[in-house]
Amino acid sequence: MDFTKPTIEYADIWPLLVVFGVACLGVVVEAFVARERRFVVQAALAGLGLAVALGGTIWVAGNLHEHAGGAARGAVDVEGTVVVDGPAVFLWGIILVFALGGVLLFAERRLEGGVSAFAGQAAALPGTEAERQASTRGLEHTEVFPLLMFAVGGMMLFPAANDLLTMFVALEVLSLPLYLLCGLARRRRLLSQEAALKYFLLGAFSSGFFLYGVALVYGFAGSMEFADIHEAVRNDLENQTLLLIGIGMLSVGLLFKVGAAPFHSWTPDVYQGAPTPVTAFMAAGTKIAAFGAILRLFYVALGAERWTWQPMLWVVAILTMIVGAVLAVVQTDMKRMLAYSSVAHTGFLLTGVLGVQQVSELADGELTSLQAVLFYLTTYGFAMVGAFAVVTLVRDSGGEASAFSRWAGLGRRSPLVAALFAFFLLSMAGIPLTAGFVGKWAVFTVALSAGAWPVVVAAIACSIIAVFFYVRVIVLMFFIDGSPDGGEVAVATRPSVLTSATIAVGVAATLVLGIVPGPVLTLTEHAGQFLR
Amino acid sequence: MYAFHEGGGIPVVDPTSADGVFSLLWLVIALPLAGAAILLIGGKYTDKWGHLLATLLPIGSFAIAVAMIVALVGREEDDRQVAQHLYTWFEAGQLNVGMDLLYDPLSALFLLLITGVGSLIHVYSIGYMAHDPRRRRFFAYLNLFLAAMLMLVLSENYLGLFLGWEGVGLASYLLISFWQHKPSAAAAGKKAFVINRVGDMGLSLAIMLFFVTFGSTSFTVISEGAGELSEKTATILGLLLLLGACGKSAQFPLQAWLLDAMEGPTPVSALIHAATMVTAGVYLIVRSNFIFDLAPDAQTVVVVVAVISIFWGAWIGCAKDDIKKALAGSTMSQIGYMMLAAGLGVAGYAFAIFHLLTHGFFKANMFLGAGSVMHGMDDDVDMRHYGAVRRAMPVTFLTFAMGYLAIIGFPGFSGFWSKDKIIETALAENWVVGVFAIIGAGITGFYMTRLMLLTFFTEKRWDKGVHPHESPKVMTVPLIVLAALSVFGGVLIINDWIVTFLEPVTGVPAHEDPPLPAAAVSVLVVLVVAVGVAAAWFLVGRREVPREAPQDVSWVTKAGRNEVYGNEINDTLVVNPSKHLTTALLATDKYVVDGVLTGGPVAVGGFAGFARRIQNGYVRSYALSILAGALIVALALLAVNAA
């Protein structure tokens, strides 16, 4: 048997390799560095690795080759398994930015009085002597940093995969570390562990669907590669059933990851149970990566079958927005409310996915749906990371206080923190002059130019419902005095510079993207189309 | 002459860039905005002088507005559109949305109204809010409102207009619920907010449709390209814009918030809920004339909505005993007249704006007068507890009387000219609508006379310990100015000045012969109004007014007191169904999925402990929902593509 050495274009994929390399290095550090210095070393290593990867991504972005008359830029690498094109590099960039935010939040130790937000010893059963000892000895799990790096690597690979198998591997690489991270909360550990288990079981379940879809599509096309699938879809008119069920199964796997209805049920439980820094990182990172994958799968591999899958996505988008917006209204816990709001955002993003993809089909001055979705993901990420970062600050004697009743009157006790949170909420609600407005406007217009007006009408109706529950929180913070049930109220704890920096960057980005969105919109335009 | 569409009579927006005094355009918005920022950020350091600063800044804006309109009138007729580019909001490839301002005859008149009446109301508020501990905040919100309202009428594109639109909504919400210690005020603010969002939905859809159709939201681009629009698209756009206008302007079926909005301090009711913000819908329609002129069906709907609103509001105005709510009903009705004129197309636009201006004067005057009366009556709003106030508060009485004569259309007063013109045009366009408008004028005469008699005439019915007294100068001087405007506002129509002035925006109306000579129409209207006034005199003025509202009244009065059941209609049609939807979704999330799996534990949900266990989010129920979803997705794909 011949064995040919694969060609690997290191010049294109080295940011990805840096992230994976640092992750592996982190595992080694775990074994060789003394415990008292480990936390700082790990945090610094992760931060440095992400920063280098971010720099590398920018460098790679500057060196992409043009294709198809400048409509797309990039190259298919590593024997056709990874594609480094404009959209992929853009997604890498924003994933790395939010991962850096995640590292900063992970490394925050001031809020818990000198220890991180993660369990001292995950193996100790909650409520036992072992747990008490772990906490009195000030133990910390520094493995969270390598885990985060592995997840980031998977997230970067996910939207850059050029065949179904790579995509599946990336899906698992990004998911497994997250399952673990979700179960590592220092406080309310049972809730956290329950969330992790749920996320794991359901994730495994949906991965099964995805894998089954891979098999069916392979059966139809005779290949795993997106370009070949595209050809097969265009030419082969037999075995449609195989393809259709295959598309269905693949969609289930991906829609689960983005939390679209009816595959959203894990979202509130997991977002609530996971340690808040993990929630912040996951809410932004996973959604960005999975939307990148959805866009690539549907546009590159299945673009020729648009009329097949579009009705299905119409229905899913409308359902997701309604479920997210309506159920968010009745929540009484901040993290659950944000979780449902993230479900609603998934619906808005799907609305964008339904837009026109081809530049040639557009009039002058119109956005492509790829541009709109990429921009929305950016705005959404900043607002979500920022909002969850604020949630980590608001505490009472039992740690983080996420119940609404604790937040009542926060605007009087901690005006700055409440104002920042209100600002993030306004952006999520899409009020003009915030980033969220431009993002919503972009995805709605692209969907409307593609004729998806029923979805847009539903989207606008849902965004109006959404404004209601965001404003309700603002009213709660600023116009209500003290706890309505007479219980304890929370105050904002002063964080270290790490969390403050994350929140500050989030606010600045949300404001700038709302007032001068031009540069980032140009950047999304510059990213061009997917490379086939 | 200004540019026209080929074949059509719709003017194209084609501004020149701003120079000279017009380069100060941005300052008109910036001044009140700076005031709001200083007062809100400066906090209690500005408590002492904040309200004075907040009053001076709008006066500054007013001065600029006056200078600009003088310069504008000095220009050639075809050169009366000025644009100022502030900065580029979005830019990506061909897409370009600028923060541009447009100053033309239409925005010039609005500018004067907003800054002028706004300044007067700021002055009045110095007296009215003198003892309120949160006075600084009140003035900050008022300034914020002015900035947003000015943005609304000055923007050169629909996105900027939307920014102002949302801004005035926010300010209105903050000001309605200003006295948050009253639960009713908080609820009213919320209601206004929610209902307005329904209208906003129409506006935002329209903006997106503009963008998709024209690739831009700028008035210049849209008015240029509107000629190629199909009638169907134009109609859809028109209806969506109308939905937006109905929300802001409290027109049927989105009127229910306006009466509750009277919970806000009275200067707010005068400024926002009578003179300026509620007329934004009329502005929107007149501004979008290039769409409505191409969509006769949409115009018909505007007229129908307007006629319903005229009577709906008048009905409420006849039955309410709360002086502010009676005035609010009248506002709805009068805005109905403006909408009616706007719906009549080119012939009516100018008169819609004319009535909007005169109404701004006399209604602000009467609201402030009502505030002055309430001030003297220990904040009692029930007219059944007033009576014979005229002797105790002569200035308030006289100024209020000027507003009263203007609104009923007493010959010579401003309202006479503006309403008369609308009725005349309506008769010429469609005599049925014209007749409705005349009857509406009669009812106006009735309810305003009733209000006047109950408050200033008849017997004293005051509460014990109430000693009405005239308000301080700082409150009466604005009243006098507004009263003067109510009397003399009609000068704008001399030589058809306002019509000619607005022609570059609204187009030149075709000459039509009215079915009756103009003088005959005027006489007829005055006679009908006289009947209304006389009816009020016999029904209210000559009888004894009970201090408690009698309960054994006809269904007509009952319906009027209940705001013609607007709230009940909303509850049945909108609120309850959405509540059911929420409950159903919650139930689906919590029970149904699991119920299928475990054989219907929902049926025994009465066992509290058991029910709680169902709700805790079993993985298996989630997995089942995923499985069901997967099945639905696969089956849907197969079903859709079976053929």
Automatic annotation (TrEMBL), chain A:
It comes from the Bacteria. GO terms for biological process: ATP synthesis coupled electron transport. One of its GO terms (cellular component) is plasma membrane. One of its GO terms (molecular function) is quinone binding. Signal peptide: none annotated. InterPro entries: NADH-Q_OxRdtase_suN/2 (IPR010096), ND/Mrp_TM (IPR001750). PROSITE patterns: PROKAR_LIPOPROTEIN. Residues 161-463 form the NADH:quinone oxidoreductase/Mrp antiporter transmembrane domain. It is an enzyme of class 7 (translocase). Its main location: membrane. It is a multi-pass membrane protein. The keyword Protein transport does not apply. Its EC number is 7.1.1.-. Keywords: Cell membrane, Membrane, NAD, Oxidoreductase, Quinone, Translocase, Transmembrane, Transmembrane helix, Transport. It catalyses: a quinone + NADH + 5 H(+)(in) = a quinol + NAD(+) + 4 H(+)(out). The keyword NAD applies. NDH-1 is composed of 14 different subunits. Subunits NuoA, H, J, K, L, M, N constitute the membrane sector of the complex. Belongs to the complex I subunit 2 family. NDH-1 shuttles electrons from NADH, via FMN and iron-sulfur (Fe-S) centers, to quinones in the respiratory chain. The immediate electron acceptor for the enzyme in this species is believed to be a menaquinone. Couples the redox reaction to proton translocation (for every two electrons transferred, four hydrogen ions are translocated across the cytoplasmic membrane), and thus conserves the redox energy in a proton gradient. HAMAP family: NDH1_NuoN_1. This is NADH-quinone oxidoreductase subunit N. The gene is nuoN.
UniProtKB/TrEMBL annotation, chain B:
It is a multi-pass membrane protein. GO terms for molecular function: NADH dehydrogenase (ubiquinone) activity; NADH dehydrogenase activity. It is found in: Endomembrane system; Membrane. GO terms for biological process: ATP synthesis coupled electron transport; electron transport coupled proton transport. One of its GO terms (cellular component) is endomembrane system. The chain crosses the membrane at residues 20-41, 53-73, 106-126, 138-155, 201-222, 268-286, 298-315, 335-357, 392-411, 431-453, 474-498, 518-540, 622-640. Keywords: Membrane, Transmembrane, Transmembrane helix. Residues 155-444 form the NADH:quinone oxidoreductase/Mrp antiporter transmembrane domain. Residues 89-139 form the NADH-Ubiquinone oxidoreductase (complex I) chain 5 N-terminal domain. Gene3D superfamilies: 1.20.5.2700. InterPro entries: NADHpl_OxRdtase_5_subgr, ND/Mrp_TM, NU5C-like, Proton_antipo_N. Signal peptide: none annotated. It comes from the Bacteria. NCBIfam families: NDH_I_L (TIGR01974), PRK06590.1 (NF005141). This is NADH-quinone oxidoreductase subunit L. The lineage of its organism: Bacteria, Bacillati, Actinomycetota, Actinomycetes, Propionibacteriales. The gene is nuoL.
